Each structure stands twice: as C-alpha cells, then as structure tokens.
Amino acid sequence: MAARLHPGVEVRPPLSRIPNRGYAHAKRALDVASAALALVALSPVLLACAVAVKATSPGPVLFRQERWGRGRTRFECWKFRTMVVETPPDMPAASFGDKAAFMTPAGDFLRRWSLDELPQLANILKGDMSVVGPRPVIVREGRLIDLREPLNATAVRPGLTGWAQVNGRNLVDDAEKAFLDGEYVANMSLAFDARVFFRTVATVLSRRGVDRDARRDDDGVPF
User: Fold this and answer.
1) Where's the Bacterial sugar transferase domain (predicted)?
2) Neighbour-count burial of 50, counting CB atoms closer than 10 A to its CB (0-12 exposed, 13-18 middle, 19+ buried)
C-alpha cells in the first residue's frame, strides 16, 4: 500500500514506534507558539470569514461538533459554518443527495481554500489538537477510528493537517487514510512535521485532492 500511495517516498511502516516524551514536549510548545502567532497574523482573515458567514446565512458563525481526540477521548471541534442551520447534524457528507442545496453562499469558497478549518487554531491552543496529526473524525464515523487504532494513530492528538491530507485528501478511502495516519505516527519528528506542513500549503494552493467531491471536507463531515 505504501508504494502505491506515495511511490519513491521513504517512510517507516506503521506500528514501528510511539513518539518519545522529549519530542512530544517540543511539539506541544511549537503547536502553542505557532497557533498563537497564526491567530494574530490571520486575524483579518478570520474576521472576514466570520463576517462572510454571518452576512450570507442566518445562524451562528461557528459550527461546533464532537469528534474523536487522542486516546479515543472526545472534544468539541470548531469550524466556520459552511452549511445552513437546517442541515441534519452529524450526517456524513456521502449521505447527502444534493449537498449544494445545504451549502451557504460563502461555504463553498471557505471549503475550497480550507478557510473553514481556521477556528481549529483555538482547539490547538486548548490542547485538543496539534498543527500536524491525523485529522479529527466525527464520533458517528467510528470505522476510520477502528482502522487507525491498531496502527497507533489514535495515540496522538489529531491535527489541523496530516500526512493523509497531503497524500490524496479526498482521493483515498478510509483504509488508505488509516494506513497513512499510521505511517505518520511511525515517522513523527519535527522535521517530518515541517515536511507535512509545507506540503499542506502547496496542496491547499493547488487544490489537489478535492476532485472527488469539491464540497466534501477531508474527514467526510458536511459542515
């Protein structure tokens, strides 16, 4: 599977290790510093997104949803709301016949450029998430979590971005995502995190991996 998902890329297979304490402390310190700096630097963008959501659709600016966190604990994940308030809650995107009918006027743009995920910078400051890690999954979508667990991918904080997101995003299935998440845990280091982060920037700018369904986010959640 590794050769098919990213030919020529040298990575450890899943299950090889759990990150050590020193790396975990350094990663947490960098998460806090980078999230705080990003919130300040991107405050005009955050304000513009909030105004766009509020001005184009009645309802709250933020969408809050319970998701799986580290060690299969649960936390409230925050996003800019991209669907109308009448949308059925916690329904996987694949269950919608016509997602465009539920999308707010600003929602499609926010998703295409991953701007809807920016409130998760606050989740990082709270300690629920990291900048890089397996993407958080809604509680109802237990299959992906079950696939991740034997690969040690539930042992770390979920991330704003992850190895699976820069290796296919919506173009890989749950088994492939879980495998990639396991590879991430097996290869965790500050250098590998930086590699994932900078590939994320390139992926977002090029919009690679959104062709299967441009209105579905990377964890299959409709909001």
Assistant:
1) 27-205
2) middle
What SS3 state is found at 183?
A: helix
Where exactly are the structural domains of the chain?
17-206
Most confident stretch, 20-24, 119-123, 189-193? 119-123
Which residues share a beta bridge with 67?
75, 138
Rounded Cα distance, 65 and 78, in Å = 7
- Phi/psi of residue 161, nearest 5 degrees: -140, 170
Q: Model confidence over 114-155: pLDDT tens digits?
A: 999 999 999 999 999 999 999 999 988 889 999 999 999 999
Residue with tokens 């402390």: 25
pTM of the model: 0.85
Task: Give dist(CA 88, CA 168) in Å, integer.
Answer: 27
Q: Which residues pair with 83 in a beta bridge?
A: 103
Q: Cα torsion for 56, 57, 60, 66, to the nearest 10°?
A: -110
The backbone torsions φ and ψ at residue 118, rounded to the nearest 5 degrees and listed phi first, read -60, -35
Q: What angle do CA 215, 217, 220 make, to 5 degrees?
A: 105
Complete DSSP assignment for 25-93: HHHHHHHHHHHHHHHHHTHHHHHHHHHHHHHHSSS-SEEEEEEE-GGG-EEEEEEE--B-TTSPTT--G
- Statement: residue 220 has pLDDT above 70: no
Quick: pLDDT tens for 97-109: 667 778 999 999 9
- Of 199, 46, 208, which Cα lies nearest the Cα of 112? 208
